[in-house]
Amino acid sequence: MLWFVTVLSFFLSVSINITLLTMDIDKELMEYSSLLSFVAFQIFFVIAGNILLVVMIWMSGKYAISIIVNPGNNISVKCWGIFGYRIHTFSVNRIISSTYFAGQSNFTGAPRVNAPWIRLKTDLGKLFIIDMQGEIHHGYEVFNAALKGINK
Questions:
Q1: Cβ(131)–Cβ(115) under 8 Å?
Q2: What is the pLDDT of residue 99?
Q3: Given 31, 48, 49, 142, which is the most exposed site by the fewest CB atoms within 10 A?
Q4: Could you give the CA distance from residue 24 to residue 13 in angstroms, rounded to a whole number?
Q5: SS3 for 24?
Q6: Cα separation, 119 vs 100, whole angstroms
Q7: Residue spans of beta strands (DSSP E) within the chain
């Protein structure tokens, strides 16, 4: 599903950018009340058309698909990447921080979101985003036991 979203965002980004670059500006200016509103809409469409692609590129290699707690306090983290999965295996001692986020939104008139996640950071600066509703082999208890005492 993430690859589909990446491909879709790439094609949307390309099509929006090509449309904006190849349009007849004189004809388009007739649709707007001023040059300022034309430029404002152009900036908005460039940002809106490319923000999802930028986020997907940033998430590549950081979003954990599954976690396996191996014997000897080693953790294998399988991450989603644009060009395929990546598996990172490291000792629990290499994790310098883990921060829990409740991931709840309470906006008036909108559906309530419940998406808890954890941000792990290793001593090498590698950042992982752990979806707590994702797949953690051996259960959350083993994963939490491996992380116990790491929070700083």
A1: yes
A2: 85
A3: 31
A4: 19
A5: coil
A6: 7
A7: 63-70, 74-79, 86-91, 95-101, 104-105, 113-114, 117-122, 127-136
Burial status of residue 69 (CB atoms within 10 A of its CB: 0-12, 13-18, 19 or more): buried
Which two structure tokens, joined as six digits, stand for 19?
């449309």
What six digits make up the tokens of 86? 């990546």
Distance of alpha carbon 58 from its chain centroid, rounded? 6
The dihedral formed by the CA atoms of 120, 121, 122 and 127, expressed in degrees to the nearest 10: 100
User: Is the Cβ–Cβ distance between 150 and 97 less than 8 Å?
Assistant: yes
- Return d(Cα 81, Cα 59) in angstroms, integer: 8
